[in-house]
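Continuing the batch. This is chain 6 of the set; chains 1 through 5 are on the previous pages. Same settings as before, nothing changed between runs. Recording input and output for traceability.
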Amino acid sequence: MKILYVNNQLKLGGAETVVHQLRRGFPDAQLAVAAGKTFPPNVLPLYPRLLARLHHSRWQAVVSKFAPRDAWTDRAFRRLANGPHDLIHIHNFHGKYASIESLSYLAKKKPLVWTFHALWGVTGGCDHPRTCPRYLAACGECPQLGRWPLGNHDDTAEQLNKKLRLLATLPLHIVAPSKWLAEIVRHSPVGKNWQVHQIPNAVDAIFENALSTKQLDTAKVRILIVNRNFKDVQKGFEMIRTALEAVAKSYSETSTLILAGENADWAADELRGWQCEVAGYVSEPAALAALHSRSDIFLFASPAENFPCVILEAMAAGSCVVATPTGGVVEQIQHNVSGLLADEISGPSLAETLSLALNDPTLRLRLGEAARSRVAAEYTERVFIQRHRSLYEKVVSSHHSAKP
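Output for chain 6:
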């Protein structure tokens, strides 16, 4: 079976982690990428390599004028319908590098699987509607304007109508990493007729190996915080700051923070009173696993999340996870069994839960060991690949049987 994965980026966050795991499981598959400056030889760029280089140079204005990137990648994406692949599996699709019209065209021509890393596919353009119910009827007057992937112009009603018109009736196969997300898709006007398959994310075995190399300092409790971008409001740094401010008086002298992610230096400046080790953005799994090997607690907060790979990585490394009860996170963490969940999604509640972990080293060790065992039993790459293989065979078979 000839498989093509399509993603916006080569390396960035959880979606990219999932794509690379799938490529390990299906080594003959190809990967097409839209954004970036350079691409490895085994990656198919949707934008030509030379133009991509020039797009990131002083010639950007000229290139954007005569060969606009999004228009070019949209045409390249549409041409995949006539390519040699038996199945297309798309990730992190936001209608940026290819239009909804092109997605509809491709889905009618090829067996197509779409992994939802967030909820853009069934909303008027936001990734996480949170408590907003507008996507269930008619979007407009959006409260999230200006927040990625939305711009400042409110076209949410138009986006939702276009998805209802062009995508809702298609035989799309959706992969939902969490039951939480799967249920939202199944009960949405756009996705109610799609086939939704729940396949949890998996963890790289390198994080399980981090347990055997843990280098814990009995004099200091190390708290690891990993954030793709600390300034992204979706990633919950404000709650983390509130929680750490609340416990600083009792624990800042006996604890160290390890900050990994874009704008980690900015975050360290914001966390006054704490000793911070700034790791910056960490792209290589081995380097991130090394940070987990030195950590006692993994602190996570977000107002809305799907099924974060970073929590699975912390669990596999035997860290005590302290997190907000967000989306699919409550499926990953069993409170007081394989980690600790705050009572609510707020900084003060997170602070209370963090205090429990900081107070009790025996509790931390027990929860970390249980978390590692759970990952080994339920979230391995082997099971992850098997589930996708079964899905691919089903999708291709149903596509061929549906042909006249």
